[in-house]
Amino acid sequence: MEKATESVSQIQVRRVLRDNNIDLQGYIGKGAYSKVQVGVNVKMGSKVAVKVIDTSSGSEYVRRFLPREIEVVRNLNHANVVKVFQVLSMDNKVLLVEEYGDNGDLLKRIKDKTRLTEKESKPLFRQLIESLVYLQSQSIVHRDVKCENVFLDANDNVKLGDFGFARFLRQNEISSTFCGSRAYVAPEILSGVSYTGFTVDTWSAGIVLYVMTTGVMPYDDRNPKKMLERMLSHRVRFPRMELSTELKTLVFEILHPTSTSRLSYSLICSSPWLHDTKYEMKSGTKSSS
Question: Which domains are seen in the chain, by residue range?
Answer without folding.
Answer: 8-99 (3.30.200.20), 106-269 (1.10.510.10)
